[in-house]
Design a protein that fits this description.
Blueprint (H helix, E strand, L loop, with lengths): L1 H19 L11 E5 L9 E7 L4 E8 L5 E10 L2 E6 L14 E8 L2 E8 L3 H7 L3 E3 H4 L2
Antiparallel strand pairs: 1-2, 1-8, 2-3, 3-4, 4-5, 5-6, 6-7, 7-8
């Protein structure tokens, strides 16, 4: 029983530590709208926009090609150079199971963002996030 309580306590401490170090303010490197670097004929004409909000939510807009426009919503957390994402439950479009949390490392170089999967059981989310993103505001200039 003591081993169980110790494990539970350690798990709670880790969770609190991750929550406390979450970057959800103006210094959040993810904030804003990002556009996929992988567009055109390479992906059947589909385009992706990914927006990270300051309230730790994100949404992915998929449009173009033969697919009807779709939006997927989720929650995210950042700890140092690690991004954790999960789709929201009971949204109109849910590509990934709510139980599947994706975990990625990320690097931002100027206005380009690269994510590399650590672990994600959702193949669609993995394909969307690992293709590279550019800050959408820079494309409009």
């Amino acid at each position: 029983m003591n081993k169980f309580l110790s494990t539970l306590a350690i798990g709670a401490i880790i969770f609190l530590k991750l929550s406390c170090h979450n970057t959800d303010h103006a210094d959040n490197p993810m904030l804003g709208k990002w556009k996929s670097l992988w567009t055109g004929s390479e992906n059947k004409g589909l385009d992706f926009n990914l927006s990270f909000e300051s309230n730790n939510t994100y949404h992915v807009e998929v449009y173009g090609g033969e697919a009807k426009p779709e939006t997927v919503f989720g929650n995210y957390r950042i700890y140092l150079d690690t991004l954790m994402v999960v789709d929201k439950l009971n949204e109109p479009t849910q590509l990934c199971s709510y139980a599947d949390t994706g975990k990625y490392t990320f690097k931002r170089h100027n206005d380009t963002l690269f994510l590399k999967v650590i672990k994600d059981l959702c193949e669609m989310r993995k394909l969307t996030l690992e293709m590279g993103l550019i800050k959408a505001n820079d494309l409009e200039k």
